[in-house]
């Protein structure tokens, strides 16, 4: 790895150069650190190119959906934290949260594991249904939504963690998968991976005798000796237990494993089935009857996307690219009733009728960059790439 190449600017939707076209810049470096967050588009290619996941379990993901609310003083409880799991997710695993912050604001959200089987499931609509639960709704009535967002979480843990080094580069944070799935916390672990990389490269760059192989070995030793490795080791069976045993047995296993045994069982559980493979044909499942949003606590996709402050240049190539444009209609529609219409929380993908025939439409300007499509598409046909010029959502205080 010798560096990165930035994207071209001023390219029209048909890939022709516009009058303001600026070619991408070649940024070369002795070492390049990739910290793109969950399902990084370059990180995904690096893992495949350098076979960094060889011998590891497949990576696993969840989709987190979150809203920021302004509520009335009598409904605000500064410092109140609510965590829960179960309802409304009868066809998926996951959990919800509500955090009361400062200035009469609170954050509410739902995390849905992307290994679910029912293609009729819509994480966005599950979230809207969640907010009607009396435990949460009593704080939201008379409130006002300020922001909406969604993002994937890399949660496979140590069993799915790829090698983080390669010649001339390192894969860090959630781009690799350093999130602690047991705590659903990843900022501190991502920061630690960056600190280990900084210490390693400081030595390498100040001593010209240290080559790429020695640099990789130094980082791997430092990682193995760090509290980061120890923390991930203790929680490595947490997510596989829930996936393999379900919320009740898996929850009991995790309680005993973490609270009584300190995460030190002599064996580890594994989930070796990729999330997208779990999806089953639509005719094996019943359609989920989601209620219409009431405009008070629950809302539709388009009004939510508006609150994500997403902005994309309209005349640019679509950043959501299909390896085979025929698959959505020829395969995904008859088998799964095209699940992209439901797993995308922003209404990017639609089946519309044109001249009496179904047409797969991509509303790329709606994209909130959650990466769910890149992860959950059963044919792995959708590739998320960065849009031009930093386009996308702009999350205030999220």
Question: Would you mind describing this structure in some detail?
Answer:
- Pfam families: ETFQO_UQ-bd (PF21162), Fer4_ETF_QO (PF05187).
- Its cofactor is [4Fe-4S] cluster; FAD.
- This protein is α+β, with helices and mostly antiparallel strands and 398 residues long.
- The protein has a domain at 276-390: Alpha-Beta Plaits, CATH 3.30.70.
- The protein has eleven helices and 16 strands.
- A five-stranded antiparallel beta sheet has the order 7-8-9-6-10. A three-stranded mixed beta sheet has the order 5-12-11, covered by helices on one side.
- Helix 4 (187-206) runs antiparallel to helix 5.
- The protein is globular, with a radius of gyration of 22 Å.
- The protein starts with a strand and ends in a 14-residue tail after the last strand.
Order of helices and strands: EEEEEHEEEEHHEEEHHHHHEHHEEHE
What oligomeric arrangement do these chains adopt? single chain
**CATH overall fold name of the domain at 276-390:** Alpha-Beta Plaits
CATH class of the domain at 276-390: Alpha Beta
Radius of gyration computed on alpha carbons: 22 Å
Biggest sheet overview? 5 strands, antiparallel
Question: Which secondary-structure class do the elements indicate?
Answer: alpha+beta
Q: How large is the count of helical segments?
A: 11
Strand arrangement, major sheet: 7-8-9-6-10
Shape: globular
Name the average pLDDT: 94
Low-confidence stretches: none
In percent terms, what proportion of residues is strand?
A: 15-25%
- Which second-level CATH architecture of the domain at 276-390 applies? 2-Layer Sandwich
Straight-line N-to-C gap: 34 Å
**Helical percentage:** 25-40%
Number of beta-strand segments = 16
